[in-house]
Amino acid sequence: MPGLACSSAPPTPHAARGRDFTMSFASARPLRPDRPPDRRARLYRFGALFGAGFRRWSTYRQAALAGLFTNVVFGVMIYSLLRALADDGRRPGGYDTTQLATYVWVGQGILSVVHVWSWNELADRVRSGDVTADLLRPIDPFEAFLAADLGRAAYAVLARMVVPILAGGLMFTLYIPHRLHTVPLFVLSLTLGTVLSFALRYLVNLGAFWLLDARGLSAVWLLASGVFAGTFFPLRFLPEWAQAVLWFGTPFPGLFQIPLDVLVERPGPAQQIGSVVLQLVWVAILIPLVSRVQRAATDRLVIQGG
Predict the structure, then answer these.
(1) Which regions span the lipid bilayer (predicted)?
(2) Does the chain have fewer CB atoms within 10 Å around its N or its C terminus?
(3) Portion of the chain with pLDDT greater than 90, in percent
């Protein structure tokens, strides 16, 4: 049997063979055992995939070193530009110089944790047909990919986050949080931002079930996540109406801006907690949306062979 190909269009008959071994996966959703797995088994699977993601990314040591160098160089450049805005006692966006320094240097550290860049693994598997193996496993593909991505994020915390923060602290004065709940809240916010980022990247990849080639969607995602998440500049620099539209109309600030605002204590204590609650709301919206879109996507999946 020749290689598999994936298409959302009706299959073409194989005239040379005189027959068509077309298998429609209209109901090819992730298999479920007769009895739902107990919580311990589910956690074990999730943990195993988490560890696999960590080990996979830990093999790219040279890439991590190159990324660290890039983070430090860009950290110096970006902070120098933002520092010029804070001359003469000005507070652009309500940040003082130490808060700006922390925003930039911790931001360089969490870029690889949240990973707002393109991710095409699922789209590539859809195009090659390998996604059928994912659908036939007794675990939801979103859950499996999420576990591996959280493993990647855990490795990024150790390999890509710590060094830029230390470098920034050696060269500039960073902001030290004054509230006891700030650091635990930042850890929670960063975790939620990573989950939000993955859910959005997964939705972009699901577009491959309809388009086969999701590179256009990935390009749009890359631009939108950079501008609207606060990676290019703090969203607090925008007019208040634009901030309100982004905060309450899109999940993008929850990827990058909110974790950093929580850490530098830019809002008051109530707003700190409210921002994290907003991230939780978006997680509660996006995960069921991913499930519905994935169900619709698998209804369109057709595997051709013969």
Answers:
(1) 63-82, 153-176, 183-204, 216-238, 270-290
(2) N
(3) 51
